[in-house]
Specification:
This protein has helices at about 15-20, 25-30, 40-45, 55-90, 200-210, 210-220, 230-235, 245-275, and strands spanning about 95-100, 105, 120-125, 140-145, 150-155, 160-165, 170-175, 180-185, 190-195, 235-240. With about 280 residues, the chain is an alpha+beta fold. α4 (about 55-90) runs antiparallel to α8. The radius of gyration is 25 Å and the shape is elongated.
Length: about 280
Amino acid sequence: DTYSLKSNNMIILKYFYEFLQSNIKYINQFFFKGVGLRHLQKQDFRNMKIPLPPLDIQKQIVKECQKVDDEIQKANKTVEQTKKEIEYEINSLSGDMVKLEKIILINTETFDPTSRQNDNFIYVDIDSVGKADGSISYENIILGKDAPSRARRIVKNDSVVISTVRPYLKGFAYVEKQTPNCIFSTGFAVIQGKEKLSSKYLFLLFMFSNLLMKQMEEAMPKSSYPSINKKDIENFKIPLPSLETQKEIVSRIEKLEKNISDAKKIIDNAKNKKEE
C-alpha cells in the first residue's frame, strides 16, 4: 500500500521524509518485530512520535539536507565521468599486441596452511574481492587445520589477482604489498609482470580494457560455470608500450582514481551528515 501525506502548518513534509530516511533502522526494529511479512499501516504512522521543532528550524534542516543531496549528486557525476575518462584512456591504447605468456609469471607460489594446524591465517576467497572496484577484504581468519583445499595461493608484492570464475564480474585486484600469513583461493590467478610489464598497468587493462574482456568472454565455456584457466590467460594479448609509457599511464589513472575515491567518501559520509 502507499499513503499520501501532506504538509500542514505544523510540519513540512520534506522534513518528515528526511526524518524517516535517517531513522530507517529504528523504524524497522520498532514496527517490524516478530516473524512474517509486515508493512506499515496507517495506524503505525498515527502512533509514530517524532521530534517537532518550529517550522523555521524544519526549513533549515531541509535546506541543510538538500545541500548534502546536491553534494551526493555532484559526487556521483564525478565518479561516472572519471570512470569514462579511465576507460577512454585504456581503450585508446595502440601498438604491437603481445601474448601474456611472454611477459608474465603466473601462480608461482603455493602453500598448504594445514601444515601449520594451530596457526591463524587470513583466507581470501572469491567473495572477499570486490566486483569491479579492486577492493580486498582481509577479515576472514581461519585456523590452519580448518583451511579448505582451495586455500593455497600466495600473493607476493606487486601482483595482480584475477578471479578465474565469472571474470566478467571483474573480481580483480592489485596487491602492492604482500600481507603476512595470507592465503588466497585457487579460484584466483596470481600474476606478476616480468621486466617489460608493469603489474599495475596489467591490472588496469583487466579492469577497463574492452579488448581484454572480449578475449576473456571468448575463452569462457558456454556453461553454468563460466571460467578461464592459466592457459587462457597466457594466450591473451595486450598492447605493450614501453615500460616508461606504462608507468606514465598508471600515474595518470591513479590521479583519476583518487578523484573517484574522494567522491565516494562524500557519498559514504552523506548519511552521517544528514543525521547530524
